[in-house]
Amino acid sequence: MFGFVERAITQVGTTTVRIAREVGGIVVLAFDVLRALFPPTLDGRELVKNLYKMGNQSVPIVALTAFFAGGLMLVQSAPFVEKLQAHALAGWAAGYAVLREIGPILIALMFSGRVGANNTAELGTMTVTEQLDGLRALAIDPIRYLIVPRVVAMVVMLLALTVIGDLVALVGAAITAKAVVGIEFSTFIHSVVDNLKPYDFLHGIYKSMVFGASIALTSCYFGVTVRGGAVGVGRAVNAAVVAAAVSVMLLDFFMTYWLG
Amino acid sequence: MSDAPPPAARPVIEFRGVAKAFGDKQVLRDLSLDVRKGEVLFIIGTSGVGKSVTIKHLIGLLGVDAGEIWFDGKRVDTLREPELAPIRKRIGMVFQNSTLFDSMTLAENVALPLRKHQGMRQKKALVEARRRLDQVYMSEFADRYPAELSDGMRKRAAIARTLTLQPEVVLFDEPTTGLDPVNARRIDRLIRELSGGQGVTSVVVSHDLTSIFSIADRIAFIYQGAVRALGSRDEIRASDDPVVQQFIQGQSSGPMETPGF
């Protein structure tokens, strides 16, 4: 019995220390990235390469997910819309949920799974094969050359993907509204335009910028701190995806509270 | 009359009582070593003895636990990361596994430091990179990715990339390990030419006896975390230290303690 308690306390202590170390490491990396941005000495080629790889290639999967997520909003609310005959509010309900919550959260999680995990694996492989030391030996700072373009690209591209995703989700909701409840497109559009404020859109955009920075920093941190070969890279990808998901949910909670 | 050594013999690199441990494993205990300008110095010893660890300290890839490291009259072991950049431009390093960037072709790999340090635009840097690759007989593979090439080819490309910095000192970490004898001798010739033609100081970590006894000016034998023997090829060959003799004759039994065996 005592052995079990001791093991449990040890486990809690070890986990707490590990999380504190990782959060501390991510914060230090954030400061290093900020320092490297003033004055900005971005490698243009790396930035463009990452913008394309992280953004362009994510559009199809984000659009597909967003379309059905938007549609789902209508499918779920359809019985109530019918019951209350609230056709004029269907667009507002779907738009409010998509712009403020579903869009930023869903796209951030998709982005973390696709782009963040890939980023951790790539940086992790470079770390275990000494390519980062190779950069240092060439007097090239890995933070400025590798990390900063990735962080900038991830923030910019998550923001752009959220804008696209929001739009596609609204289209998905409008089509579903017409197909399931028979709401005309004009009614849906009026419902969105008349009831939603620009701030509802900005609310989601602010969130996506913070989510982008969080996913970028966690994925880069776990990539450059990999230890132990291929197994280590696998562990790092796992840890990065979990940490990014947890941080997105926590940040969403606090930002929703603060942004109002 | 001055007691200063003649210029040719003046140390350009000095390790003074360097110690380094990884966890509870003490790798370097009290390593002191001078490297003279323009020489080819081989650091030899069994695997895991701390040869690579020693040279990585010189460009700040590892930090010392105790001791000092000096380069050209300046202490380098206390420098912070941003202060190391000028030192790293003067001391190039060719890693054991080449460390070419696998997302880039050979030409792009060699062009990177040209772009970053000489302000060349990508197009011009790529042209210059091909010329550099030609010097190591690799220009026909300029558009290939590192994963498509053999170890020997990757090592030659890595040497070309390091030389773009025009370093005064080049650190080679096991440059011939894993290579066939022909490629290994080509690398040896390249190292020798660098020293003879361009006056580059070379520090070579190796346990390739053919390389060691064909191109070394001096040899430092590391054992149990310190330099056990230091001298010319002939002096090391004639050493009466049984540990040194066991190593250079490649005998499996003898007085040498080799952890793990």
Overview of this structure, please?
The complex is a heterodimer of chains A (260) and B (261). Chain A is mainly alpha-helical. Chain A is built from nine helices and no strands. The model of chain A has no long low-confidence stretch (mean pLDDT 92). With 261 residues, chain B is of the alpha/beta class. Chain B has one domain: P-loop containing nucleotide triphosphate hydrolases (Rossmann fold). In chain B, strands 6-7-8-3-9-10 form a six-stranded mixed beta sheet, sandwiched between helices. In chain B, strands 2-1-4-5 form a four-stranded antiparallel beta sheet, covered by helices on one side. Chain B is globular and about 55 Å long. Chains A and B meet through helix 4 and helix 5 of A and helix 2 and helix 3 of B.
What is the strand and helix layout of this fold?
The complex is a heterodimer of chains A (260) and B (261).
Chain A: H1 2-37, H2 44-54, H3 59-84, H4 90-128, H5 131-137, H6 142-181, H7 185-195, H8 198-224, H9 229-259
Chain B: E1 11-22, E2 25-36, E3 40-44, H1 51-58, E4 66-71, E5 74-75, H2 81-90, E6 91-94, H3 106-117, H4 122-135, H5 151-163, E7 169-173, H6 181-198, E8 201-205, H7 209-215, E9 218-223, E10 226-231, H8 233-237, H9 242-248
